[in-house]
Amino acid sequence: MTDNTDPGTAGGWFLQLLAWPRWYLDSDDSLQDVLAADLKAILVVALTALFLYLLPGSQLARARGTLSQFFAGWSSYVFAGAFAALVTTLVQSNPSLLGAFKAAGDGTTYGFFVGWLVGLVTLGSWRGTRS
After folding, report:
1. Better pLDDT: 81 or 13
2. Model pTM?
3. Confidence of residue 129 (pLDDT cuts 50, 70, 90)
4. Distance CA 11, CA 49 (A)
5. Which residues contact 13 (CB under 8 A, 6 or more apart)?
6. 10-19, 26-35, 47-56, 83-92: least confidently modelled range
7. Of 12, 44, 103, 130, whose CA is between 20 and 30 Å from 90?
8. Three-state secondary structure call for residue 46
9. Alpha-carbon distance 103 to 109, whole Å?
10. Residues 71-99: what's their mean pLDDT?
């Protein structure tokens, strides 16, 4: 998808952004880079679930359907994208601190523009036990 879109347009940039954590297998890349890309896709999902569990806490159990649930879901995806990119940069060949910071910025951008979908899904979802 990234080869068929124009990053100079808003639509092309957004389509490239949607393809950020992806599975791929390219014989030209090193095994470390392929594993890092695949691990990034797994970590985005796993860390989103972890942050969804940790962020809202008990205060949202009673506030079902409020905007705080939306923002908790959205922010969990932003954090998951940033941390997944940061961690997987260490697995890539030739890791650097600057590369890790740039990757975390890319993950944050991805989470910010796509995470509202997770926020909508978590809006009104049930957390905790009934009292």
Report:
1. 81
2. 0.78
3. very low
4. 29
5. 5, 7
6. 26-35
7. 12
8. helix
9. 10
10. 90
Alpha carbon 130 to its chain centroid, in Å, reads: 30
- For every residue of 21-64, DSSP letters joined together read S-----TTS-HHHHHHHHHHHHHHHHHHHHHHHHTTTGGGTSST
Q: Looking at this protein, which amino acid is placed at residue 75?
A: S
Tokens of 76: 């969990």
Task: Provide the pLDDT for residue 57.
Answer: 57
User: And the tokens for 106?
Assistant: 């890319």
| 32 Cβ neighbours under 8 A, 6+ residues apart | 91, 92, 93
